[in-house]
Amino acid sequence: MKAHLRLLFAGGAMLVLLLALVACSGGGQRAHFPTGQMVTATVPAGQQTVVALPSGSSATFPAGAFAANTHVTVSEMLGGEERDAATFPQGSGLLLGALSITAAPGAAVHQDLTVVLVLEKACTPGEQFVVFQFNPAHHVWESAGSAVAQVGADGQMATFTANTTGLTELEVSYGVFENLHP
């Protein structure tokens, strides 16, 4: 009898745990990010610098991007709200690729950056996607101006130019979404 009660109690505990995990998962509506990859580097003022993650995602800072040597962080780790499908653009599907770029406070940006995103799934080489950036004030992904990401020959990465010239602070998350083409 005691063995049956222990088994029943253990089974009930496992069911509660399973229900809690399902409830926290958001019903499968979140993107697969974060990957946990993040790199911090110093960008010398007068030198082009590529800050690349082990996955292959990267941000290229051209010579003169900053007036002085500047610490930057490039990451595929997105915050909870950024991964939430409720914040995705209307008509979008899967968040195919994303990258967060942050510079030391007060570091104005004087050049546009080149960004490479590793995609969650293979796409057609040459396919283009509208680039979005997360707006934390409005809690949504918004179009990043006229930026368009183009899928490379391998179908696994997309590249675009981020319009960062003139930003007084660099703290931005970029992403491309399935179904959103120019």
Please characterize this protein's 3D structure.
It is a single chain. A hairpin with a 4-residue loop joins strand 7 and strand 8. The protein has helices at 2-24, 80-83; strands at residues 38-43, 49-52, 58-61, 70-75, 95-103, 113-118, 128-135, 140-151, 157-162, 171-177. It has a 10-stranded antiparallel β-sheet. It contains 2 helices and 10 strands. 15% of the residues lie in helices and 37% in strands. By secondary structure, it is mainly beta.
- In N-to-C order, the SSE pattern is HEEEEHEEEEEE
Rg measurement, Å: 20 Å
Provide the residue-averaged pLDDT: 83
Separation, N- and C-terminal Cα atoms: 67 Å
Helical residue percent? 10-25%
Walk across the major sheet and give the strand order: 1-4-5-10-7-8-9-6-3-2
Amount of beta strand: 35-45%
Unreliable stretches: 1-34
Report the strand count: 10
Overall SS class: mainly beta
**Biggest beta sheet summary:** 10 strands, antiparallel
**Number of helical regions:** 2
Shape type: globular
